[in-house]
Amino acid sequence: MAKMQSSPSTILFQGDSITDGGRSRNEDLNHVLGHGYAYLISSRLGMDLANRHKTFYNRGISGDRASDLYARWNEDAISLEPDLISILIGVNDAWRSMNGEAKGYTDRFGRAYRHLLEETREVMPDTGLVLMEPFILKTGATVDQWPPWQERISEYQEQVQQLASQYGAVYVPLQQTFNEALQQADASYWLWDGVHPTAAGHELIARQWLSVVQDSPLAVV
Fold first, then answer.
1. What is the rounded CA–CA span in Å between residue 179 and residue 39?
2. Interhelix angle for 146-166 vs 109-123, to 10°?
3. How far, in Å, CA of 72 to CA of 69, rounded?
4. pLDDT averaged over the chain?
5. What are phi and psi of 164, to 5 degrees?
6. What does the pLDDT average to over 33-52?
7. Of 11, 180, 194, which is closest to residue 91 (Cα–Cα)?
8. How far apart are the first and last CA of the chain?
9. Who's near 98: CB < 8 A, 6+ residues apart?
10. Separation between Cα atoms, residue 127 and residue 84, nearest integer Å
11. Contact 84, 128 (CB under 8 A)
12. This prediction's pTM
């Protein structure tokens, strides 16, 4: 894993609707980070490190697949010159396939993900990378096709873990975190439709991110 020369000052969260969290598309600082895990992490670190003047960006876009993420990478990632990029993507790639949509027939998840990591390492070799594991639970949208959902997401989880190893990124496991949370409450309490987190689910993600990243060479301090 690449070691950063200093603590990240500019942190970017990237992904789909789970990251998006209903964020505004303007400069309204009351809404620009959304209301999900990216907001929770940013608010906690921003408070704890107020004297360090950290900058947090959220550029997640609802509905994005890995290929969509790659298509806007120059504008929504590289141009911001972040010191740390955290990525959570994969559920929409799987969802398109589960729904049999034409755009889901060619699975470009791993290929597109690799492209954006390669490009990031080429243009910003010192930028820290955090790759978050995609996750699901058996409730809502995933129930009727649970075996294929499990199979596809498991493939993505393995690919993300491998990419994290290959590109010197910090890997944040999340599936086991949600599985263990089922001991406290049922699946819909954490992921209301099997995919999208509730408020408690976002807090679970935020705590896991902080636990892993803040105990790594990429810690925001």
1. 23
2. 20
3. 6
4. 93
5. -60, -40
6. 96
7. 194
8. 18
9. 104, 145, 148, 149, 152
10. 5
11. yes
12. 0.94
Residue with tokens 């609707």: 17
Backbone angles phi, psi at 95, to 5 degrees: -60, -40
Model confidence band, residue 26 (pLDDT cutoffs 50, 70, 90): confident
Locate all alpha helices (DSSP H) within the chain, ordered by sequence: 17-20, 37-48, 66-71, 73-76, 91-98, 109-123, 146-166, 175-181, 187-190, 199-213
Tokens of 182: 């089922």
Residue 3 in tokens? 């070691």
Dig out the tokens for 39 from the structure: 């907001």
Distance CA 218, CA 6 (A): 9
Instruction: Answer whether residue 101 shows pLDDT above 70.
Output: no
Classify residue 32 as left (phi > 0), alpha (psi -120 to 50) or beta. Answer: alpha
Q: How many CA atoms lie within 13 A of 141 on its CB side?
A: 17
156-205 per-position pLDDT tens digit: 999 999 999 999 999 999 999 999 999 999 999 999 999 999 999 999 99
Give catalytic residues, as residue numbers: 17, 193, 196
Residues 70, 153, 104, 77: what is their CA dihedral angle, to the nearest 10 degrees? -10
Please state, for a pLDDT cut of 70, what percent of the chain lies above it. Answer: 95
**CA gap 138, 198 in Å, rounded:** 15
Q: Is 129 helix (H, G, I), strand (E, B) or coil?
A: strand
